[in-house]
Amino acid sequence: MAALLQTEHLVKHFGGLSATDDVSFSLDEGEVHCLIGPNGAGKSTLFRLILGLYPPSGGRILYAGRDITALRPFERIRLGISVKFQVPGIFAALSVRQNLRIALQHHLAAHDLGGEVDRLLDFLALREAQALAAGELSHGQKQWLEIGMAVALKPRLLLLDEPTAGMSPEETHATGALIGRLNADGMTVLAVEHDMAFVRQVAHRVTVLHLGRIFAQGSIDDITSDEAVAAIYLGDVAQGEAEHGEAAHG
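Given the sequence above, the corresponding structure tokens read:
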């Protein structure tokens, strides 16, 4: 399987701090890949380097075989990269339908807009909420709406920054199912995520970052069975999930 995205010896310094330190990473075409790690591990910095929001201090970034290290964010988006940030960037005062129209309006002919908006509403399970102001949606629905806006143009690569933050377990599972459907349609996905239930549900491979470096890579089973990974990260998460499960069933 060919790599769609690669970083080669990627470094980012902030003063004397190496937030990303010699990261060589690859994302295969058609893969769902999750980046995990404790706070301060460098996940968000790597994400922003890939998007072009930070210039690297060293190394380079390749997308579909092309060096995009010097490209600005909008130029990367034109190449087929889309992003959904942790905090929804929806237009709260406009309806759900209007939000989706805005995402599409400069890219489709007027007579095609309605049908594509309808398709997205059904895909996102937001058909019944289409006339509501986006600000009236539940937290999970707001996240789904922004995912819909991010995938409206059918990007080749979707970047997700903690897509399930603040969601209930039910919303988290529904989000995982949505990501699975996007991937089944051919979309490659890279997600920064903390929720290990979501990671287990969607990820083909997992990369663990620690202190700005790649600490471990593999399947979710490889990662969860790695005692060194558990020592820095997963033990606390697993304990939290166990306590959450006990509370839910108690």
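The beta strands are 3-14, 17-28, 32-36, 58-63, 66-67, 81-84, 157-161, 188-192, 205-210, 213-218. Try to locate this feature in the token string yourself.
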